Amino acid sequence: MANKDPKTVTEQIELLRQRGLLFHNEELVPHFLENISYYRLKGYWWEMQSNKVQHKFDDNSYFEEVIDLYNFDRHLRLLMFDAIERIEVALRTKLIYHLSLTYGPLWYLDYSIFTDGINQMSIAGHLSNEITRSKEQFIIEHKSKHKNELPEAWKALEVASMGSLSKIYKNLNHQLPEKSTIALQFGFNSHSDFSSFLEATTVIRNVIAHHSRLWNNNITIKYLWPKNLKKNPITYIPDENQRAKLFPLFSLVVYTLENVSPNSSIKGKFYSLLDEYPNVPVHKMGFPENWRTQPIWV
Hints:
By secondary structure, the protein is mainly α.
């Protein structure tokens, strides 16, 4: 049957026991299952199953290991969100600064500087909705004082999502010197590579925003591996299968962050997180055996 009957927490625990999962302290298990859904935790115990059809667990698999994985992933999401936030803020700042000085305060509505004017109309329409929904005081004041005037880029883009910023950057004419300047300031010699990175990073940001799993999850967007970076983050070019895991993109995030926020403590925090959860199988996120010797992680 496609639709299964719901189970009480007690029934959930019994089902896990029947499938071979062990418990160090069973008295605490109801607390976790009452506050973290069975189905959410399923993503963390999936790899602990020797038979994924019958859902049989490997020998000596413990519920507490699942909770450790869950907590590790929660902290990893916070760490990644902090890193991506810095990249997003820097992107917003550079778009506003470089393009406003050259093309004026309403450049985001100047379709002549974009490769696809129709697409930019759609992006501008989405941005207009973001402005309409915004409760920021500077947007409220603009609407009050300038009823028939659109907000300048430094107001409009401050309430734009990272997805909108990424699309605006991608749609800029490739010949614009500002497009290359921005990519270079993030450490990318190619604006196409930088745009691809932004798209992939936006996907990760959305995964985090929805509190979804990063550990052992797949990157659902295919992105370009950049060429001729100032400093290669890793010593090999990851193929598509490797890029489907977090490690290569995480390495690029750290690399990009070093260009716009060189005093960031993201690597130290990640090492501390691994020290706190030493049994987490990082290879499930695509981390190779020698990952600590890769240039960006040294």
